[in-house]
Specification:
Blueprint: E1 3-8, H1 16-30, E2 34-39, H2 68-79, E3 82-88, H3 96-105, E4 112-114, E5 121-123, E6 129-135, H4 140-145, H5 150-163, E7 166-173, H6 181-200, H7 207-213
Parallel strand pairs: 1-2, 1-3, 3-6, 6-7
Antiparallel strand pairs: 4-5
Helix pairs in contact: 1-6
């Protein structure tokens, strides 16, 4: 059974982003996947880091413990085979709520680990995949030429790839404010198709994860 974590990266409730994520999650469950949802419009949005211990998992008794919500989010990411991010584009990237989540959850010691010598690091989330679904008011060409696809590029390479997660798909739903109800309904059906597709994919586990779960 594929384990899918859906992250809704907007602080606003009852949005198109929610409709897309809900359709995706529902169809994925119908397809046999086990699905968990983190909705940053309702679930705790982590606060800004106030000390260095907030940027790493505790390594000793002297380190400050993680906030309970953050510890739960980290466990959800480690549990997942596949992570689906749903978010709107704001100011050429993604909302601060999603950035705060990333800063608090993708930590040194759980998502990656610097090696004692050299400039390399260990990608601790290797074996997982991700999908990005982004809504935006700007045209695709504007997003590509003016913003350089900043939101997708930073997530795909600077966050997920850095930790070993392979992005298998990026969906950009453009010019939202100019679309009618029929177009939005078509997008929801597209999200359903993606949920079914990801549920049917084989489990994506690294050898280390298989050994740990055996």
């Amino acid at each position: 059974m594929t384990r899918i974590l859906v992250i809704i990266g907007t602080p606003l409730d009852q949005t198109l982003t929610h409709a897309l994520a809900t359709a995706y999650a529902s169809t994925a469950r119908e397809g046999g996947a086990e699905v968990r949802v983190i909705d940053l419009a309702h679930d705790t949005v982590p606060g800004h880091p106030t000390h260095r211990d907030s940027l790493r998992t505790p390594r000793s008794a002297e380190d400050r413990p993680l906030e309970p919500a953050v510890a739960t989010y980290i466990a959800d990411v480690e549990w997942a085979d596949h992570i689906a991010f749903f978010y709107p584009q704001w100011w050429g990237t993604y909302p601060a709520a999603l950035k705060a989540f990333i800063d608090a959850v993708f930590l040194s010691g759980s998502a990656f680990r610097y090696r004692a010598t050299g400039k390399l690091w260990d990608k601790l989330l290797t074996g997982r995949t991700a999908r990005l679904v982004m809504t935006m008011d700007s045209p695709r060409a504007w997003n590509r030429l003016m913003y350089r696809n900043a939101a997708e590029t930073s997530l795909t390479h600077a966050v997920l790839g850095y930790c070993g997660i392979k992005t298998v798909g990026v969906t950009r739903l453009a010019e939202v404010r100019h679309r009618d109800a029929a177009a939005r309904a078509k997008w929801v059906r597209r999200a359903q198709h993606l949920g079914a597709k990801d549920a049917a994919a084989p489990e994506r586990r690294s050898p280390e994860r298989v050994l740990q779960s055996a």
